Amino acid sequence: MIIILCLLGNWQVERLAWKLDLIEKLESRYSLPSIKIPVNIEAPDDWLYRHVTVTGRFLHMREMPLYGAGPNGKPGYDLFTPLLQDDGNVVIINRGWVPEKLKEPASRPQTITNGEVTVTGVLRKSWKKERFAPDNDLVRNIWYYGDLNAMAKAQDLKNVFPMFVYADKAAEAGAYPMGGRTQLNIINNHLDYALTWYGLAVVLVIIFLIFHIRKAEPENDPF
Q1: I want to staple 157 with a disulfide (CB 3.0 to 4.6 A). Which of 66, 139, 141, 152 is the partner?
Q2: What is the Cα–Cα distance from 57 to 106, expressed in whole angstroms?
Q3: What global pTM score does this model have?
């Protein structure tokens, strides 16, 4: 058991080194100035959290609201909207968050833009359903996790860029949709896990020594 606990601790130390290197890479990439979005990419991981700009026309009739918490945990929706570029390629943009009462486009006509727009934002990857998350409701067009391929298929989109763009926060405070939904806050608990495993190994050694020291002590015979 001591060997197993120490091996688990060593594994977490290795994971800690990997996570620190990852955080450094992502923070460095996130701080770079924005560039024009490439036509295509082969390795999405190498572009994660990179700032890009893209120009096109929003296809508001194909908007896809994704359920999510907003400021102070308030329920609402992130508006994933396809952006059609001049070359015919499509980029799915997370324009930002709106409260539940503004889910329907008719309730927020000011968010419907006409003509060409330029969006600056951060590249993010598609993600899989979490264990206890509900399934995406394609019939009602309500999404619970960002499956880019499923979104493209549901809206019959062609030539779709393989990553989302999360729009930056608008200059006007409190404007909807509320952009800037990307926060570079990567959880790193590997040091705590390593100390836990090593600590359990130390406790096990102490218990082992106490047990055997007591066992080795001679019993007091009153006779």
Answers
A1: 152
A2: 19
A3: 0.74
